[in-house]
Amino acid sequence: MKKIALTIIVILFVLLFGFLVWLVMPAGKDRVGDIIPAKSFAVLSLELDLYDKGIRGILKPLKDRAISSVKKPFGKFLIWSNAWKFFLPTDITVVFIPDEQREGNKFNWILYSSGNRIGKILKCPIARERFDNLLAKGKPFQTISYKGVNVTKINDKHDEEKSYYYTFLKNWLIVSNEVYLLEESVERYAGHQNKETLKVHDGFRDFMNKKRDGELSLFFQNGSSHEVSDFISNLEEKFSYSIFPNVNSMDWIGLHMDIVDRDSADAVFLFKFSVDVETGDKIENDVYFISETLRRIGRANGLDGRYTIGEEGDFISANWKVKGIKECLRTILSKEVGNK
Amino acid sequence: MKKAFVAVWIMFAWIGGIESLSADEDLTNLISNDAVIVASIKPGKDDPGVSYVANIWKDTLKEREKNYTKRQEAIEDIFKQPHLPNITLAIFGKDITKLYVSGGSIFELHSYLILVGVESSDKEFLRSRLDILLQKNEDLKREAVGEKEIVCNEFAGLSRDPSAYVQLDDRIAISPGIDRLKEALNISKDSIVRLSKYQDIMSKITLSGDGQLYIDNRDSLFTKVLRELENKWKITLLLAVDYVDAIGVSFDIKDKDSASARIVFKAKDPKGLEEIKNDARFLGEAISRKFSQENVEHSNEISVSGKYVILELQFKGLEGLWARVLKKE
Q1: Residue B172 to residues B9, B37, B127, B207, B259, Cα–Cα distance (Å)
Q2: Which tens digit of pLDDT belongs to each residue from B115-161?
Q3: Residue of B235, B236, B289 lying closest to A242 (CB–CB)
Q4: How close does chain B come to A240, measured CA to CA in Å?
């Protein structure tokens, strides 16, 4: 009898373990470029390969800080044992879109997180309701159904006028501060949007296709509404300074960043500017000035940056190598702790 | 308020209404060769550019001062004079060293020397106005040093405020405290004009300009000062400052619409030339872009000759800018 009970316990344990492994295993990647809003201004994308030496290098000081700031022993144990890592998504993309309703440089945002199976579990209504309650922390929340997809609205706990919306779609957990952005993603996923409005994403797709594993990418689109130009013009007006006078003749800016040294968190950056050939020289001068300014701001903050600027057809690129990131991060974090 | 007082002092000294010295006369022979920063304004007697800028400044001050105090009246009297004098400001290496050895900051520097060229016939006029400006509520102390008389206010406010002056024939020396003035009285062979490094860098800049600046990176003092300023500004302006031996700057306001400037960097070692050249390019771009935003036409050019990197800047279309900048102050 005891033997049978023991066998059942072992089987249950194996099943539970198997379930947990299944739960935390990456669920596969989906192309986020197919569902981001057409008027995206900036797209920040990070592939979180936890076995990547660079990512591990950069997470180390964050982990050290978390261990010292968490007081409960169990919490400390979870952080120390790296168990939390298995619940992290493998791919995170944040998109910023100019808010045409508000004045100034205000942006709406939408976050796509994918690669974890938890979202599949949360598609079960009971689990979803529990998850909603957990996030809302006892505050009322609302569930809206849009084209068959459940969207949850949660009010900000500090500001009643602010709300956040989230939903699960395929392998993505999608969160935004505006419901229309979630709806647009749902529509694009269902293929309801006119493909013509998405032409500007060709550059984005090409750029993202060249992204390597473990890299962080940032993409700015200077679309038909000249979002980047307007943003730069506002900055130039604010500081009475000409930063990027030839920005109008540029279609987009892309950035790939990769941590190449785990110990020091040294990183390489590739900035790519899509330009009109006729204005290439002027933009090259702007790229030089921006690069030098960044290098000098970095140096004043303990970063040693070196770069080369090159031309490749319709692109001007700036290849960077930056040393001292880990130390700089440590200094920033220790200052923050000191301020608290 | 204190900053405004120092600024008024400098402006007073510049636009002091006392006739300019002739071109041959040089205030720098009163400055000891320990000086590491020497800034001079040498407007020509009828310089159209400087006169235009000075007139805007005078008008702006007149508009601001509604209820004049005695001190403001003294400034007003000085402004009524027609011509602009030469003025030189010097900061000394031993003062900076002393400051850093004691763990101080460059913002606590309270030792400098201001020299103004004056016309002999205006001595009494100037003396009376200087007395009013220094006096505040206390009587002035007068101390005889040789044949000269140092006038000072021991309670002049902050230690960095000008508090003493001495008249040396056709020149006036002003300083916070009397030590620097006594030194100026006794300088003969050890003045900076006899220093070969000074002569060398000044010969590379345009001497006919309205203003000049000499920076000596002796004992890396300028490096230390600049690094402190850069830490405050959160940006490194000269990455290659360690390679710089000296810097010379001259500027010329040609007329109400155009101006030019020349910046010369002397390298300690030819190995640093490329880095210095990159700094010069960045500096040229940074200056030009500020003017570009103000719709001023500009150009900048860099050349290298031996150990020297030379940055030349030209500006056109400044007329509107002068009024905007000076009236904003």
Answers
A1: 13, 19, 9, 23, 29
A2: 887 765 566 777 777 787 776 666 788 888 888 889 888 776 556 77
A3: B289
A4: 6
Q: What tokens does A206 get?
A: 């090409």
Tell me which H or E stretch contains A287: helix A280-300
Contact B285 A288 (CB under 8 A): yes
Give the DSSP H or E segment for A207: helix A201-209
Crossing angle between the packed helical segments B319-328 and B48-64, to the nearest 10 degrees: 30
Q: In B, which residues are within 8 Å of A240 by CB distance? A: 290, 293-294
Tell me whether strands A216-221 and A42-47 are parallel, antiparallel or unpaired. Answer: antiparallel
Cβ-nearest to B239 among A243, A288, A296:
A296
Least confident segment among A44-53, B70-79, B160-169, B265-274? B70-79
Tokens for A80, please give them.
Answer: 């120390």
Specify the pLDDT at position B148.
85
Q: Which helix (H) or strand (E) holds B142?
A: strand B141-145
Q: What is the DSSP letter of B100?
A: H
Could you identify the residue written with the tokens 């001068």?
A285
Type of residue numbered B110: H
DSSP for B299-310 reads: EEEEEEETTEEE
Block residue for tokens 């230690």: B159
Determine the average pLDDT of the residues in B96-123. 84
How far A235 CA lies from chain B's nearest CA (Å)? Answer: 12
What confidence tens digit (pLDDT) does each residue in A210-243 have?
A: 777 778 889 888 877 787 888 888 888 888 889 8
User: Which of these, A211, A281, A177, lies nearest to A32 by C-alpha position?
Assistant: A211
Q: List all residues 6 or more positions away from B35 whose beta carbon is below 8 Å from its beta carbon.
A: B90, B91, B92, B93, B192, B216
Q: What is the DSSP letter of B83?
A: S
> CB-CB: which of B282, B286, B292 is closest to A245?
B292
Q: Provide the phi-psi class of A302: left if phi over 0, else alpha when psi is between -120 and 50, else beta.
A: left
Q: What is the distance between the alpha carbons of residues B194 and A207, in angstroms, rounded to a whole number?
A: 62
Q: Where is average pLDDT lowest: A143-152, A166-175, B76-85?
A: B76-85
Going along B31-127, which residue ranges are E strands?
35-41, 87-92, 113-117
Interface contacts (A, B; CB < 8 Å): 46
Q: Which member of B235, B281, B293 has the closest CB to residue A300?
A: B235
What pLDDT, in 10s, does the model give residues A24-72? Answer: 676 666 678 778 887 788 889 887 777 766 667 667 777 877 888 888 8
Task: Determine the residue of chain A that is closest to B235 in CA distance.
Answer: A297
Whole-model pTM: value is: 0.76
Are the CB atoms for B196 and B212 separated by under 8 Å? Answer: no
Q: How far is CA B26 from the centre of its chain?
A: 14
Residue to test with chain B: of A247, A296, A307, most B Cβ within 10 A:
A296
Long-range Cβ contacts of A278-282 (<8 Å, 24+ apart): A278/A249, A279/A246, A279/A249, A280/A311, A280/A316, A282/A245, A282/A246, A282/A249
Q: Which two tokens stand for residue A8?
A: 């059942």
- CA–CA gap between residue A119 and residue A27 (Å, rounded): 10
Partners of residue A285 in chain B, C-beta under 8 Å: 285
Minimum Cα–Cα distance from A292: chain B residue? B282
| ipTM of predicted assembly, 2 dp | 0.78
Domain boundaries, chain B: 2-192, 195-328
Tell me which chain A residue has its CA closest to the CA of residue B232.
A300
